[in-house]
Structure formats: structure tokens, C-alpha cells
Amino acid sequence: xxxxxxxxxxxxxxxxxxxxxxxxxxxxxxxxxxxxxxxxxxxxxxxxxxxxxxxxxxxxxxxxxxxxxxxxxxxxxxxxxxxxxxxxxxxxxxxxxxxxxxxxxxxxxxxxxxxxxxxxxxxxxxxxxxxxxxxxxxxxxxxxxxxxxxxxxxxxxxxxxxxxxxxxxxxxxxxxxxxxxxxxxxxxxxxxxxxxxxxxxxxxxxxxxxxxxxxxxxxxxxxxxxxxxxxxxxxxxxxxxxxxxxxxxxxxxxxxxxxxxxxxxxxxxxxxxxxxxxxxxxxxxxxxxxxxxxxxxxxxxxxxxxxxxxxxxxxxxxxxxxxxxxxxxxxxxxxxxxxxxxxxxxxxxxxxxxxxxxxxxxxxxxxxxxxxxxxxxxxxxxxxxxxxxxxxxxxxxxxxxxxxxxxxxxxxxxxxxxxxxxxxxxxxxxxxxxxxxxxxxxxxxxxxxxxxxxxxxxxxxxxxxxxxxxxxxxxxxxxxxxxxxxxxxxx
Amino acid sequence: xxxxxxxxxxxxxxxxxxxxxxxxxxxxxxxxxxxxxxxxxxxxxxxxxxxxxxxxxxxxxxxxxxxxxxxxxxxxxxxxxxxxxxxxxxxxxxxxxxxxxxxxxxxxxxxxxxxxxxxxxxxxxxxxxxxxxxxxxxxxxxxxxxxxxxxxxxxxxxxxxxxxxxxxxxxxxxxxxxxxxxxxxxxxxxxxxxxxxxxxxxxxxxxxxxxxxxxxxxxxxxxxxxxxxxxxxxxxxxxxxxxxxxxxxxxxxxxxxxxxxxxxxxxxxxxxxxxxxxxxxxxxxxxxxxxxxxxxxxxxxxxxxxxxxxxxxxxxxxxxxxxxxxxxxxxxxxxxxxxxxxxxxxxxxxxxxxxxxxxxxxxxxxxxxxxxxxxxxxxxxxxxxxxxxxxxxxxxxxxxxxxxxxxxxxxxxxxxxxxxxxxxxxxxxxxxxxxxxxxxxxxxxxxxxxxxxxxxxxxxxxxxxxxxxxxxxxxxxxxxxxxxxxxxxxx
Lengths: 491, 491
Description:
The structure is a homodimer. Chain A is of the alpha+beta class. Chain A has three domains: 12-68 and 123-285, BirA Bifunctional Protein, domain 2 (2-Layer Sandwich); 295-413, Anticodon-binding domain (Rossmann fold, 3-Layer(aba) Sandwich), CATH 3.40.50; 418-488, C-terminal domain of ProRS (Translation Initiation Factor IF3, 2-Layer Sandwich). The first copy, chain A, contains 14 helices and 26 strands. In chain A, helix 2 (39-58) packs across helix 6. The longest helix of chain A has 26 residues, at 391-416. The first copy, chain A, is globular and about 80 Å long. The mean pLDDT of chain A is 96. Chains A and B meet through strand 2, helix 2, strand 3, strand 4 and helix 3 of A and strand 2, helix 2, strand 3, strand 4 and helix 3 of B.
């Protein structure tokens, strides 16, 4: 496949699609709307999973696994949930195929029709709360802090790799608590965990905030979100954490005996992030040369490319590099020595640039003489010559520096793209010409939100946690408002 | 739930079901044939996954992810595969529900009927080889060594927790090679990886062998298996590795240009183990008191139960145990201090026995005076008093000893239950009275195998890799045979 990428400035959307394919992250499958996550892409997802899983466990959660298929009737039990999720979904109606007559191949066996249709989970609140009824009797059984890593399916009409696919991978936390306060605290805590993960590992700054009623999860009383900003000025909802009140406990009749011996309904949260984060990662840092990966999530952190004139020189280089490789591995740094003779160094340079390897080491004949190497940073595309003495230590420092630099750059971009506006004219102008988040006063009504969305395609991304009290008037209706919220066009 | 377990000698099957429920490993869900894997059970599965994943990566494999749903027509492409897998399966026929009239709730929207039905993957050869066609062009693209961790579904009529469920979790390796020899070597190598995992981590000895034609995977030319023996004398197929020849490459038109510039079809393997291993683990070691877990797979390796007369004494005990806890954690040993005041020590003893925690530490007033603790081994149910001096080191040694002891015990049981028989009368008698593996001569025909199965319910579990050449006659037909194979009743 050609390494040529469409430039971001030419067509951002095309650039993204090409990059995901050319960097070998994922591709469309033969099944409508479903993707294949290729090994290089999956390796990044595995790193995300490992870090998140650790953070979940450190905050007291345990993993479990619940069924893929959910009876149709479960969805009907929670009124707002069914509207949000049970409509566009994959429906299992039969459990057997048979050989058709006249060589027509295998066909559905009409005798094997299910009495009740089963839905491939779009999210698991219903099946999980159906279990929790059996697990929770007393306050001693609470809190129940459970997470599931799973595949889910939502029958999307327009799909894009990672960003919106019919099937995607995610984790979904589902917790049960004795009090409203504790559930609310949990929902906010997990929003914090997501924000920390996004910043520390993805080097992706996020705004923590609360969703407006229109944008809440179907069945939630509050939805807390982390919102990231992509390079094209569009926002991306990177993770959400929901305070579900007692909605699911009531729908599935989950009660506990409190310390005073009285029965009460349980309080709930749910929270999730998905392979959508892969799309966010790509769109936060990458450039016209290809992927740029933060070192903490890069499957290969350092690649060594020998530049040699003879097999013998290649052998010398490999021998010279072995101690460095061992030193790096001892520090937990993943390193690849690409000694393939089937590809030229220049081809390899382009390949690892495309794949976003944070640091490239080139070593040739002159380096052998001078006891040096050439280090190239993927984030800045700068090169420097370094002595081989103490190189592993220098590389360790450099990787940290790259990780930090990516976050600083992304933060700067984000700061540059939060614009305060005080009129609807300005709102539309900024949205069209600059993009990014627009901090504007809003009157708090769904009606206004809806109208702004219809006129501009911008939605309220969140009411930021740190929004300051400020007297103002709604940018659309002119009604009074006490704080600014963030609008943006979004993925 | 009562801790009382049915005895194995009374009703092995009932004992198993009760144990899985009472030890909190898994339970049935509200969806027919599908289980919920509870946190304690899932924690064991996670440990299995982590070790296997490391072994796969150490042998050069990478993870990837392919779609859950497979178009019906894909199955028809490989003739024997469709017979084996496409029949009893979950069929997705529609992609939307709608509100019914007259308050009948949500119903299937007949307008949203799929043109071609989609099958929930029972195994992924077809969808994966459909991708491999795009990934493989040249010998340089080979070998392709990929593994997937996934859920799969087979519509089983009679289900049992872990052993046979409609949905289960597994890993499936799918590799592509340039030569027959290399593919065969890979298939055998993965059989070896599985055997090593079973013995080293599960403390479960297995027989490595080859399946007879009747018992092969649908679409395979050879199936290599690891067969374990449960305490009731029944065999359990714990993992299989298949040499698929060029069957799938031909069905999905996957060719490569070899070094000589000629096009050839690719050679394939696939291999898998599943949550069935959880059932095998339970049935290999557990006893009438509950679960017995090998330390290497135990979510909690050591539990500390304080025996106290006052809150103050409890505090003293906790304080005393903190350095030990830190020492154990530093050694990578997972330890839980159960200081709950809501449950009595005796209740806790029974609880951790039921849950198979390998080592229990009890510490009370007299121990405080004497600077001792009481150590109780779950495998032998023996107790010993130990000084608190250097305790972490002793525990580390003891855990190794327990791990080894479990393997030795299971090996002994297996050796005691491989019986050579030379007549069909003896075959039937041993099968009924003693169970286990029966090493008998077989004439090599499917016909004889089928007849023996119909008469005795015993099947050929495998032709062991280490079967010795030995002149003999088939136990059923009297025809000549050159080696013994292993028969058994099986899960």
C-alpha cells in the first residue's frame, strides 16, 4: 500500500480513514458496519485495557461476565432505556439452520424460532440488574462494584472505523450502592478515573463536565462526561459515567435491607469507554506523516534501523546494539530491531513514521566509528546525534519528554480552541471559521438547545465541572443564565 | 447460601453444580443456556488468560479482533465446516424493533429484515480467512500468527456451567503458513503450549495425542488434543489444535507468491481453549469441602483470619500482620486479611475452604504471646504452627509445595486410571466399574469406533503421541492393530 497520505488540511476525514488503514490499525470487514481490529491496532487497545483495568481494580472494582444476548422483554422494563437502545439492534430470532432443498444451501429452520427474540447487548444494564436482584439482599452486600470487558452492538447506519461501528469493544462498569450520595460519588469518581487515563496515558486533555438533559444516557438521571477536542475542531465524547438513581433497581426490583432493617431500592451507576478511544487517540496527535503515538501506549516505543553497506557491517551493528536492547528491555521499554534485508532503510523510516513509533534510532558506518547513533523523535520530527554511552538512560528520559510534550501540545491546541462568545452571530461565525469549543451562556432549556442544534449542528458537549458563576444572557434566547456551557460540533 | 455440599461419592454431578454455585464461580442467567461468570470465577479465568496470553506472545503470536457476526454464506464455503458448525447456532435476521400497536410492547420490525442472515460466530475460521485473503500476497507475509480472545456461541440443548454453555469465552488461534510442514509444526507446538499450561498452572496432567477421524474438528485434516481425567473417571478434552491443510485457503481463495514466484494456497492451523478449562480445574482438584485451587491460579493465595476477643485485640493482630502482608505482596503473593467483624472465624474458615484459598493463616491471643501463627493447607487440610519469623519466605515455599503436590496427586490418580485391556468384556467391565482411560487396541476404522461408542458410550479420546508400537488385535473386531489408543467416557 502506498505510504502517501491525504493531508489533514485537504480533507481531514479522508486523512483519518487512510491513516487508520495504512497504519494497519483496523479495516472494514465483509460484514456491514463491522470492523476488523488488526494486530497493531489491537496492541494499542490492549495497552489501554491494561491501564484502565488496573485503575478500576485500584478503585475496588472486580471484573465479571454477563450474557451477550438479552431477552427483548428486559428492555421494556425501564421506559426511557428502551427508547434509547432497543430500537436499532441485532435481533436473534432463530437457533438453527438446515440444508435447503434443491441445493439452495443452508437456510433458516422455521421450526427453530425462538419464543422470545433475543437482542445482542447494546449495553448491559438490564441483564446485569436482573442478576443483581439475586446478589443483593442486605446492606452488607453493598457496594457492589463490577466491571465487564465485552463486545456490544448498535445497528448504526453510517459507520466509521473506531468512531462509530456496529460492533465495538468496551468496558462497562455497573455498581450498586446503599445511598444516593455514594452512587453519585462513584459516578463522579469514575469520570475522574477516565480523565486521568486520558491525560496521563493518551496525552489527551479532556474537559470534565455534566451532560444536559437532552444528551444524557437513556435511563440516567445525570451523565458525567469527558470531552476531548480533535485537530479539526470537532469535539469527541471520550467516556461517560452515569448516575442512574433507582431507575434500574425499581425496574428489576432490586432491594436491600438497610442497617435499620428496612427495605430500600438500591442506587446505581454505570460507566464506559470503548474502542472509540482509538479514534480519539489517532485524531489528537497524528500528522500528515502518519500516526503519532504517546510512548505510554505505543506497542513499539523504540525502533532501531541499521544502515549498512554489507552483511558483515549489519552483523557488527546488530552486535553493537544488543547491549542497548537489553538495557532498554530491563527498563521495561519495548524495542524492535528491524534487521530485515528485504527492505531499505528509507522504506523503514517511512513505515515507522506512519506507525507512530515515538523514537527511531538509526546507526550506520560513521556511527560505528564515532560510537554514536542518530535519534529521531516522531513528535517533533527532529534528529539528534547521541553517544552510545548511557544511551538507554537518555532514551528513557526522552520518552517521558515526548509523552509530556504531546500533552502540552494538545493542551495548547485545546486552550486555543475554547472561545467565549456572547452573541449568536459570533457563535455561528466562530463555529464555522474556527471550530473548537464555544463557551456561551445558555438558558438551560432543552428547547433552546434543540434550536441551536438545528441551526448550527452544534450541541452542548457539557456543563464543565469548573464553570464559574457568571451573570449573563443566553446566546440564543436572551434569557438569564448563570454560567457558560461548552458547545461544539461533535463526532 | 448453606455451605453444605453434596459429597462426590453420592452424586458427582450434583456436587459439581453445587460447588460452582456455592464457591461463587458462576450461575445460570435468565437466558437459556447462558451463564453469568461471577467475579470470583472471572478472577480465575483472568489468571488463566494472562498466562496463556503470555505464552502465545512468547511463541510469536499477536492478538487481533474479528466481527462477532458472520454472513451465512461464509459457512457454506467449506463443506465439512458447515455441517459441523452452521446448524445449531444463533441467527440474526432483523436489525430493528419498533413499538407494537395496542401496547403490546416492542416487536420486531418486519421492514428491517436482513437480506442475508448473520450467524453469531461459533468459531471464526470463515470470517478470519476472508480477511487473510486481503492480508496475504507474498511469502514475506507468512507466517501470519494471530490469536483472538472472544465470546462464541453454539446452541447447545443440554447445558452445564462452564462445561457446556450456549455462549462461552475462549481464545482462538488462526495461523497461515507457506508450507505444510510449518503448519503441522505450529499445530503440534500449540498442543505443547496447552499441555505445558495445563500442567504448570492448572496442576492438571494431560495426555497429548491425536484425534481419530470421527472426533476431528469440522474442516481439519488432523486434530491434536490434550485430554485430562476428572475425578469421576470421565475424560475431558481440555484443548485442541488443528492442522487445517489448505481447506480454508481454498475455500476463501487465499494464495501467496512463493520465493520462486509461483502462486500457492496457504497452509493453516487453528487452536483453542475456553472457559471449559474452569470446569476442568474444578473437577481435577476439588473435594467434599469445596474448591481446591492451585496457587498459581488462585485469586487469593493466602487469607489471614484474626481470632480475637476484643476490638483492641483485633487491632493488635492487624498491626502485627501488616509487615507480613507487605512482605507477601513484595513477593507477588496475593493476600487478604479478613477483619470483618460481621462474621465469626469459624464461618470464615468454612468460606475460604469452600473457595479453595490455598493457605489460611489463623492468629489469636496465644499466637500473639508466642509470636506464632497457625497455617492451614487447603490441599491436605493439615495445620501447622509456625513462628512469625521469616514467615513470608516459608509461605512462598509452601505455596510452591502445594502447587507441586496437586500435580503429583492428579498425576497419580491419572496413572491409576489408565487401564490396559485386551478383550471387549474387560473393556466394558473396567469402563463401568473403574472408569478412567482404557488403553486398548483398535483396528483404525470409524466403523468399529462407532460401534464401541454405541455399545458403551466410550469414545476414542486420542491416539497418544507417545503410544508405543505394539502388535495386537482390536479389542472389538479382532483385526490387527499396531498400537493402543485411549478410550473413555467423556464430558
